[in-house]
Amino acid sequence: MENDLDWNDLKFFLAVARGGGLTPAAQALGTSASTVSRHVDALEARLGVRLFMRQQRGYLLTDEGSALFGQVAEVERATQAVERSRGRLDGGEVSGLIKVATSETLGNHLLAPNLAGFVAQHPRAQVELVVSRHLADLNRREADLALRMMEPGSAIVGADYIAHPLGKVRFGLYATPVLVAAHPDWRTMPYLSWDESWGDYSMGNWLIAQYGGREPLLRANNLQAQYAAACSGLGLVMLPHFLGGADPLLEALPGTPEPAGRDLWIVYHRDLKASRRVQAMRRYIEELVVRLNDATH
């Protein structure tokens, strides 16, 4: 490679190779397809070789591209390992940025409302919440640690990860007081549930079974939409107790069965097991979950 080779170009090259095209790479990097194309073209010009075969079905690596990918991916892994280990070199005070990846429900209603205590304990630390339905890739430094709700019995995969179980997220059935008063039998209420993209979600199937297979009044692909609709009085909704129990617009339905709940895990890369900032956040989240579980029992 020439001495003036730009690591920025290599980053775009890796994204195209992994995504198989300009558009997936642009989405992964938060930029435009034209920007990605410009960087790839610049890299090929510097090296004097064709790295991709441009085809209708996407970008395929040439032999030269495959060889470069192996080399650059190895450099990327080494760089990320160094970055992950930075926390070990810190002094005794917790400082620096801590990236926490989680779902929309956990991020908006569990972590964000309760981060003031962490910042008060560690005033030199900054927190970045990475909120998404998709699991963050901890190997690629998309986050330092992740808080994940999993199906009961699911295992956290990845030999490079350390995973701590935090117990169950308990759920219950909630509706507005007006709706509860109008339906002495809760099974006559209209109810809200998940759409077909959540067809393998055990608790969604459990709720439909409670209604004898009767169709919900509203289907949605995320809990936030169901929650907002339930607060308007549209129907009954199944919510984690830390969310439903904290909203004065809703009340828990007494005498109703309780779903199995979901397992809660906190996960981080093995390289970060000695990082003060990451371990401080891990302990804070564990203590937060214990407090909330105690409050909802």
UniProtKB/TrEMBL annotation:
Keywords: DNA-binding, Transcription, Transcription regulation. Residues 5-62 form the HTH lysR-type domain. The keyword Hydrolase does not apply. It comes from the Bacteria. InterPro entries: LysR-type_TF_proteobact-type (IPR058163), LysR_HTH_N (IPR000847), LysR_subst-bd (IPR005119), WH-like_DNA-bd_sf (IPR036388), WH_DNA-bd_sf (IPR036390). The keyword Transmembrane does not apply. Belongs to the LysR transcriptional regulatory family. PANTHER family: HTH-TYPE TRANSCRIPTIONAL REGULATOR (PTHR30537), TRANSCRIPTIONAL REGULATORY PROTEIN (PTHR30537:SF3). This is LysR family transcriptional regulator.
